[in-house]
Design a protein that fits this description.
This protein is mostly helical and 164 residues long. Among the domains are: 69 residues, Winged helix-like DNA-binding domain superfamily/Winged helix DNA-binding domain (Arc Repressor Mutant, subunit A, Orthogonal Bundle), CATH 1.10.10.10; 31 residues. It is 54% helix and 7% strand. It has 8 helices and 2 strands. A two-stranded antiparallel ribbon has the order 1-2. A hairpin with a 2-residue loop joins strand 1 and strand 2. The radius of gyration is 25 Å and the shape is elongated.
Length: 164
């Protein structure tokens, strides 16, 4: 009896609210969606083949990612033969707009004008962290009073840094 109750709990579908922002997606989820958007719908095999040209991934990895996207409500899937056919639930433009809204609300107090000013370089440049504003300037190159390091010792130091 205990064993059957455990299998029911494990197989119960997760109820996760759909996420509709590119910012809410993991990098590989976004890669899979970027393949799916132009083709409209596709199988894991289609998505896997398209991703293989830029960065090979295991078929099962892509299958897991597509399953997660379906659970999140980002894609819909339907069974066709033995495979699932996936279709995005929002367009790339909708996802971009939602991501921009999230950035505007999170970083610019809801002001699209402040974002535009920031992107054009007209922003005020205010920072939330005072430690960045008060940090001393970094020097480029060795300090004037630094002792010279013999060439052999310098090569050994470079080799040590490379190995670390």
């Amino acid at each position: 009896m205990e064993k059957s109750r455990q299998s029911e709990v494990v197989s119960a579908p997760r109820t996760t609210a759909p996420r509709h922002s590119i910012l809410d997606l993991a990098p590989l989820e976004l890669e899979c969606l970027s393949v799916l958007w132009p083709i409209g719908e596709g199988t894991v095999r289609d998505i896997h083949a398209a991703l293989a040209s830029s960065r090979p991934r295991a078929y099962t990895t892509v299958m897991t990612i597509m399953d997660r996207l379906a659970q999140k409500g980002i894609v819909a899937r339907r069974k066709v033969g033995r495979a699932f056919l996936y279709q995005p639930m929002l367009s790339a433009d909708e996802a971009r707009l939602n991501a921009i809204d999230k950035i505007v609300n999170g970083f610019f107090d809801g002001s699209r004008e402040a974002l535009a000013d920031h992107l054009s370089g007209r922003g005020t440049g205010t920072r939330k962290s005072a430690s960045r504003d008060t940090a001393p300037a970094q020097t480029v190159g060795p300090a004037v009073d630094a002792p010279a390091i013999p060439a052999a010792e310098s090569q050994a130091q470079n080799l040590d840094e490379t190995l670390l």
